[in-house]
Specification:
CATH architecture of the largest domain: Beta Barrel
Radius of gyration: 18 Å
Structural class: mainly beta
CATH topology of the largest domain: Thrombin, subunit H
Helix content: 10-25%
Largest sheet: 6 strands, antiparallel, barrel
Number of strands: 12
Distance between the termini: 34 Å
Shape: globular
CATH superfamily of the largest domain: predicted glycosyltransferase like domains
Order of helices and strands: EEEEEEHEEEEEEH
């Protein structure tokens, strides 16, 4: 099984391109925002709790701050440390607690691949029978929507509005945030893994 090993304190003083953590090869889609608020589709190709390598059409400058919402990982941010023909790498800005969480998430993803588990979802997606519900924002606005698919960790929703990435929402009685936009609507990551009982109203 895969596990992370953090570099020694001496290694952390090396240049940014000399990584403090071992990277994991992944293929995680997401969306990122540049300092000028332009948004781009992106894919994380490899990542550690300290840095991430993106394929993306965006062309930021060295040192610019990047905010990204990545499938299975949620919100990450950091500064551009390297540029290449197809994208760029960032050094992550994160607390020790956030890095520990990222290490756990990446370990799970790496072991899932090693064990031959499904690549595309953290939890199996189900097509609900009861698809009609409401999406609510913190300011009280409510929008009718249709659930396209649903899992213990998130949902894809057909909706006319496009709340900004990272916007806190409530889908039915489940709290979460918007992590991706797509043609029909938005993808939502729940704030916590739901129980199967919580989804029974839709299934």
């Amino acid at each position: 099984m895969y596990s992370f090993q953090q570099a020694s304190p001496a290694a952390r003083k090396l240049q940014p391109e000399q990584r403090s953590f071992q990277r994991v090869s992944v293929t995680l889609p997401g969306r990122l925002m540049l300092p000028n608020h332009d948004e781009y589709e992106c894919t994380v190709l490899d990542m550690s709790p300290g840095d991430a390598n993106f394929i993306c059409a965006a062309r930021p400058r060295m040192g610019e701050r990047i905010i990204a919402y990545v499938d299975h990982l949620g919100r990450i941010e950091g500064s551009v440390a390297a540029l290449n023909d197809n994208g760029f790498a960032i050094l992550l800005t994160a607390t020790d607690r956030k890095r520990e969480k990222l290490a756990a998430q990446l370990t799970w993803i790496a072991n899932k691949h090693e064990l031959g588990l499904p690549e595309d979802r953290r939890h199996n997606r189900l097509t609900p029978r009861n698809t009609r519900t409401e999406l609510s924002l913190d300011d009280g606005r409510r929008y009718p929507c249709r659930i396209i698919d649903l899992s213990l960790s998130g949902a894809a929703v057909d909706i006319d509005v496009r709340p900004a990435l990272g916007t806190p929402i409530q889908l039915g009685n489940m709290k979460g945030r918007v992590v991706r936009h797509f043609q029909e609507g938005v993808a939502i990551e729940f704030s916590s893994v739901q129980s199967k009982e919580a989804l029974t109203a839709f299934l």
